[in-house]
Specification:
Blueprint: E1 3-7, E2 10-12, E3 18-25, E4 33-39, E5 45-51, E6 58-60, E7 68-73, E8 78-83, E9 92-100, E10 103-107, E11 111-115
Parallel strand pairs: 2-11
Antiparallel strand pairs: 1-3, 3-8, 4-5, 4-9, 5-6, 7-8, 9-10, 9-11
Amino acid sequence: QVQLVESGGGLVQPGGSLRLSCAASGFTFSSYRLSWVRQAPGKGLEWVSAISAGGGSTAYADSVKGRGTISRDNAANTLYLQMDSLKPEDTAVYYCTRLAALGTDYWGQGTQVTVSS
């Protein structure tokens, strides 16, 4: 079955960096677009970034543009999100998702990122 397992979250000081990973299994990883979505405490879901199946096309929310870098390793079936210059407002649970023709069809369990001094 399809599995998406995030890791790499944690507590980081403002201005710091984290690299989130999402290990995928149960499907042909290189055939699907993928994205990162986050949910801050008490708030709704916010789309963060997306990447094409081959990795050549990326997109970012304005809130992370210039600070986030999405990438993928199709040989390792892994999605990444590098986040730099982290701010307290980046505190959230970060989810990786698989994008099908009609939208998101699978989610991971999420990884907590807390930005605080």
